[in-house]
């Protein structure tokens, strides 16, 4: 299962962060942050440092000691990264960008489904007519 989020418990002395994220992103807008289930807003509550893959809370917006901070990826699915027109040149990097976007969305959906179900999926799954 791909990593699409990082979970932290705010500790005294480091409430503002920085809080690192260990997953790749396509754009800064794909990064989301929640504190105890409340989604925070970039620039209002936190800033993003993509070169060092971390976020830092803005002064006065830090979480309290013991609050759960989740830094996660939510890849934008609309619009698709590149659109192709009949008769135009198709570049490999544009195809790769589209596949990367779809891969990230699939990974996020997979992780979200498992966290909603709680636990893990195991055992055999059989498709077809019942006996």
Question: First CA to last CA: what distance?
Answer: 33 Å
| Low-confidence blocks of residues | none
Describe the sheet with the most strands.
4 strands, antiparallel
Structural class: alpha+beta
Short structural summary:
The longest helix has 26 residues, at 92-117.
Describe this structure in words.
The protein has 1 helix and 7 strands; from the N terminus they run βββββββα. By secondary structure, it is of the alpha+beta class. A hairpin with a 4-residue loop joins strand 5 (46-49) and strand 6 (54-57). The strands form 2 sheets. It has a 4-stranded antiparallel beta sheet with strand order 1-7-3-4, with no helix packed on it. Helix content is 20%, strand content 21%.
Distinctive features:
4-stranded antiparallel sheet; 3-stranded antiparallel sheet; flat; 20% helix; alpha+beta; 21% strand; 1 helix
């Amino acid at each position: 299962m791909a990593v699409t989020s990082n979970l932290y418990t705010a500790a005294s002395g480091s409430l503002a962060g920085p809080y690192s994220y260990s997953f790749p992103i396509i754009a800064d807008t794909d990064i989301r942050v929640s504190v105890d289930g409340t989604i925070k807003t970039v620039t209002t509550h936190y800033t993003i440092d993509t070169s060092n893959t971390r976020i830092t809370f803005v002064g006065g917006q830090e979480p309290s000691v013991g609050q759960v901070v989740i830094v996660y990826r939510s890849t934008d699915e609309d619009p698709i990264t590149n659109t192709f027109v009949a008769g135009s040149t198709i570049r490999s990097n544009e195809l790769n960008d589209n596949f990367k976007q779809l891969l990230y969305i699939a990974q996020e959906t997979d992780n979200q489904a498992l966290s909603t179900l709680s636990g893990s999926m195991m055992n055999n799954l059989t498709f077809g007519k019942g006996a």
